[in-house]
Every structure is written in C-alpha cells, then in structure tokens.
Specification:
The protein has helices spanning about 10-25, 35-45, 45-60, 85-90, 105-110, 150-155, 185-190, and strands at about 65, 70-75, 80-85, 95-100, 120-130, 130-140, 170-180, 200-210, 215-220, 230. The chain is α+β, with helices and mostly antiparallel strands.
Length: about 240
C-alpha cells in the first residue's frame, strides 16, 4: 500500500497503519513486523523514512528491536500505572506551618538511610484547595549543623521545584508508596479532623542517581482530595508524542 495523498508524511502513514494493526490485534505481542525492505517496497519509501516510522512506534512503547532480527510487538503494560493527583490538590495554595530539627524515628532513618544519631529537618506544610484545608505534607532531610546553613536546607527541601536550583531534574528519581491511614497524633491536630478519620498517605523517597537518599516526604490528604487517578496500558497519542 503506497501513500498517494501527498499531504501526510509517509513515515506517519507507516506509523499509523502499523499502530492500527497492533491496536486491533492483527499484530500481537511477540509478532515480528515486516522487514525494512518489505516496508520500503510496500510504501514506496526510503529506508530512512521507514526507520523514522518504526522509531515512532518504538517511542510509543508499541514495538522493540533486536539487532539483526528485526522489530517485534511489545507486551502491553496493563499492570504498570501512571498516577496523578487531582488538579485541585496540585494547583491549590500551600503554607509552611512549622519547621523542626528532630531526632529521626526508625521509619525516617530507614527512608533516608541515616543513623539514629543524625538529626533531620522536618518541614510541615498545610495545603488548601478552593479555600478549604485539603492536606498536610511533612518533608524530612538530613541535617548537619552549619553545613549547609538552615536557610539553604529550607530552600533545598521544597522538592522538586526549589531543588532544581541545586540539582538537575535528571539527577534524582522518586520512589512512591500509597496507603490509607487513620488520623492520629500531631496529624490529627494539624488537619483538624476526627480521630481515626481515614486519610490517604502518599510517601516519597528522593534518590540521586548515585543511590543517596536525599529527602523523604509524607503527604496526608483529606476526604475527597485523598484520591489518585491512574492509567495503564497504551494511550493512543499523535505522532511525535511519546508514551
């Protein structure tokens, strides 16, 4: 099948038609795609154009290549989810409530990989959505007196935005866990909620590419704000957009 429209680049036609076959199940996980020579003949296209179309499929996570063997259909990742917060939680107002230098509990020691005799700075930040209290975030970072200064630590702790002034966004990654917990202790007072009211706890550990645990945060979300939206599998996008 040759592209005779003159309006659509041939590589996009190759990408779109092969993607359609994969989505419809005509090509399934592990299937070998037609060779580059076959595709060149089918679309009356150069090898460079064919490879550009295949590269789009690869960037979308639909196919993968094996040297000297060709391109194969990937396995759909239905058990791997991309999670996002409700927009009103992300765009709402936040205020710092308290900053403490504390001895770390065992949980914090483990998350930051620090000994029990190393203090941490704890930053308490209250968040609001549409004027209503929506949650509390506590961020912990290791503290060494005088190095750096407390002012630098404060700026450094507000991940990921303020941290980018000190480190590039690719220099660390985040491990995340989500669970339901009852409101108790200092959390109960700060969120002004009923004892044992269910909260969504989102915990993050920030880790450099060298493996150093540089920060730990716990975000407690109230009521209707305590939800995450997730998507798994392939979401069809336009050419040029990665998965």
């Amino acid at each position: 099948m040759k592209n005779k429209t003159g309006g659509t680049p041939v590589y996009i036609t190759i990408f779109s038609e092969l993607r359609e076959q994969i989505i419809k199940g005509n090509l399934v996980q592990g299937n070998l795609l037609p060779s580059e020579n076959e595709l060149c003949a089918r679309y009356d296209a150069s090898r460079e154009t064919v490879r550009k179309g295949l590269k789009e499929l690869e960037q979308h996570g639909l196919i993968y290549s094996r040297p000297r063997r060709g391109y194969f259909v990937s396995a759909p990742q239905h058990d791997e989810f991309t999670l996002s917060f409700p927009s009103d939680v992300l765009s709402g107002e936040s205020r710092f409530k308290e900053i403490k230098i504390i001895w770390p509990a065992e949980e914090i020691q483990t998350a930051l990989q620090i000994p029990s005799n190393q203090k941490v700075i704890a930053f308490y930040r209250i968040s609001y959505a549409d004027g209503a209290l929506s949650g509390l975030e506590i961020k912990y970072i290791p503290y060494t007196k005088g190095l750096p200064s407390i002012e630098d630590e404060i700026n450094y702790a507000v991940f990921p935005q303020a941290a980018n002034a000190k480190m590039t966004s690719f220099s660390y990654y985040t491990e995340l866990s989500v669970k339901a917990v009852p409101a108790q202790g200092e959390i109960l007072a700060m969120l002004e909620c009923a004892e044992n009211e269910p909260l969504l706890l989102v915990s993050r550990v920030y880790i450099t590419q060298a493996g150093a645990h540089i920060a730990y945060s716990k975000q407690y979300l109230l009521g209707s704000y305590g939800e995450l939206h997730g998507v798994s599998g392939y979401v069809q996008k336009q050419p040029g957009q990665k998965k």
